[in-house]
Design goal:
It is built from one helix and ten strands. It is of the alpha+beta class. A hairpin with a 5-residue loop joins strand 5 and strand 6.
Length: 140
């Protein structure tokens, strides 16, 4: 009896993880359909075990990211438009061109463009070099 219960728990756990991975793929596909991310560079950092990653993100009017996290801190610098940021543990805030914000590692957040023009921002992170390579993880 103990063996069959342990087997059931193991199968249920693997099945849940597989379904979660499929959901993550779907959420990333929905997010990527309208939001454009351009990688400027990705290279080994001067900090052992880390990579330096820099991207430009463009969010069309009326579009928002899905809630997600990053494995390392994320520095954001608004280039154009207005970025509304929902951030775990902070009130929702709005950032304009030439304003910056730091998003701590692991904090749930999402960027929203509720304006009439494109919002773009540069972002830099330094996640661990061996792992998810800077990908964001959707919160489902």
């Amino acid at each position: 009896m103990k063996r069959s219960a342990a087997f059931f728990v193991a199968v249920a756990s693997v099945s849940f993880q597989a379904v979660s991975l499929l959901d993550i793929g779907n959420a990333q596909g929905q997010q990527a359909s309208e939001i454009k991310r351009t990688s400027l560079f990705q290279q080994e950092s001067t900090l052992a075990g880390y990579q330096a990653i820099m991207n430009i993100v463009v969010i069309p009017p009326g579009v928002s990211e899905i809630k997600h996290t990053h494995p390392g801190p994320l520095s954001v610098y608004v280039l154009e438009g207005t970025l509304t940021l929902e951030h775990e543990g902070r009130p929702t805030a709005t950032y304009k061109p030439a304003e910056a914000v730091l998003i701590e590692a692991g904090k749930i957040h999402r960027g929203i463009n509720s304006g009439d023009e494109v919002t773009s921002f540069g972002c830099k992170t330094a996640p661990k070099a061996h792992g998810n390579h800077g990908r964001s993880w959707p919160i489902i």
